[in-house]
Amino acid sequence: MAQAPSVAEWLFKCLSAETKLDELEAEGIALRAENDPAAVQNSVPLQDFSADIRRSAMRALPVFLAFFCLENGVRELVSERMIDRFGSDWWEHQASVPLKRKVQERKEKEGRNRWHARRGEQELFYTDFGDLKDLVQSKWDVFEDLFPDQNWVAARLDELEASRNIIAHSNLLDEREVTRVRLYLQDWTRQVG
User: Is residue 147 one of the residues assigned to a domain?
Assistant: First the structure.
């Protein structure tokens, strides 16, 4: 007959599992947050806010995370493709004058607030989501092997931008919009790889 584990053995296994969950969540693999608001509150204390706000935040969290990954994934894709085609100084020679001006103004404004963290090293981190779509369309020859056509990219990114802006300004999407976001993200990852 098998002997039951001692309390110490059982506790050690639980602590080991908890440590592994912490490591996975630190890598961006949220396993507990959907069911355990305390998992999110380990990094951001939310207890001072009303229960309604906390519940809304937990509903918004998966969509916010999806948009964080998508937007930065599009930036990464644009950067990699443009560097491969035009070299590391592609921004200076390939970005439009209005876009360069917009980014420069944002960098200057940020420079006045030296106490605050920077958006990123590359100019692309100072662009809006819509600017990324415009870059893909204006340099279509760099991206055409990835997508069926420009309309496919424009339609999805335009519709995603509308939902992204709602979430980015701390509002909730209804279930229909969450479903659309989920489907479009699946389309994007299947198309781009």
Answer: yes
